[in-house]
Structures are given as C-alpha cells and as structure tokens.
Amino acid sequence: MIGDLKKWTEIGKGIYRYNVLDLAYFEIHIMYHAKDTDILTANASLYMASDWSNSKDNLNFFERKLFLNGTVMVCLEKADFYLRYMIEQIEMLVDKGKGVEIVSRESNYEKCNGCPYYYGEIDQCMVGEDDVPENLEKKCKNDESE
User: Fold this and answer.
1) Cα 21-27-30 angle, rounded to 5 deg
2) Which pTM does this prediction carry?
3) What sign results for the dihedral spanned by CA atoms 121, 27, 74, 93?
4) What b/e readout covers 44-78, taking b as 16+ CB neighbours within 10 angstroms?
5) Beta 99-100 vs 94-95: how paired, if at all?
6) In Å, how far are 37, 47, 108, 135 from 15, measured between CA atoms?
7) Looking at the DSSP assignment, which residues form a beta bridge with residue 18?
8) Dihedral (C-alpha) 11, 68, 24, 61: value to the nearest 10 degrees?
9) pLDDT at residue 105 tops 60
10) What is the dihedral of CA 138, 140, 141, 143, to 10 degrees?
11) What is the mean pLDDT of the segment spanning 96-118?
12) CA 4/CA 41 separation, integer angstroms
C-alpha cells in the first residue's frame, strides 16, 4: 500500500504526498533524480505534515517534520513503518464494541529528551533500528545507575 510510490500523489515536481486519515500526510521530496536511473534510487527526504494543536498551551499550528533523508525506497519503507506504528497506537485507543476508550499513556519526553536515541515525533526509542548507530550512550542507562 504505502510502500508503492504509485499509490502516492505527485503534487509538484518530485513532491509526492500520501494522506493519512485526514489528520496528517507523508511527503517525499525528491532532491535529485537522474532520469536514466530508477526513481527508487533517487535522493529524497521523508516528511510528515499536519495541522497540530497543543491543548496545554492552547496553540494551533502547521508543521512539517523531517523524518529522514535517504533514497526514495528507504523513505517508502520508513513511511510504511511509521504508518504501522500510528495504526498500532490508534488500535490501543479503540476498545472494539465499546467505541473509543482513551488510554492514558505518559509520554517518554520527560524521561528521554536529550538522549541520542530518542525520536520525539513518534515518542519512542530508536535503539536497534538498522540505520541508527549502536555506540551512543543511552540516557536511560545513566538514569538507572544514579
């Protein structure tokens, strides 16, 4: 589905969009594509964009968040990963047969912000991801030793 560039809409020269639940959308921006090569090998960036709101501060704003730079193929794979993650989080909120039940889950921001492995946009630790180095010092290891 999302892993096939043909399912994305080209909204401008080299800019592709994939809508997610009318809430947000992924964008792939192709930075360089030699026309005699497969488009999946082109240099690109993956973004998520949406109108966001912060009820705590009563802020409403638009933001485009850069997820990664890589080939179009890598961008498609990561977009698929992030979409699956979002769906998993939504499913945690849904109690089938009873409608939506809000599950209180504390953010990892307070505990993990500043750690080189923390990816705040999806509120998760990126330890073990293929494209993340393994030689960095985890903040949670420092906290545990204190």
Assistant:
1) 160
2) 0.60
3) positive
4) bbbbbeeeeeeeeeeeeeeeeeebeebbbbbbbbb
5) antiparallel
6) 18, 11, 32, 35
7) 26
8) -100
9) no
10) 130
11) 55
12) 14
Cα–Cα dist 41/54, whole Å: 37
Mean pLDDT of 79-100: 69
Alpha-carbon dihedral 17, 19, 23, 24, rounded to 10 degrees: -30
Token representation of residue 125: 């630790």
Distance CA 120, CA 116 (A): 11
Instruction: Tell me if 97 sits within 8 A of 90, measured CB to CB.
Output: no
Q: Tokens 């921006």 sit at which residue? A: 29
Residue 22 tokens, joined: 């009318």
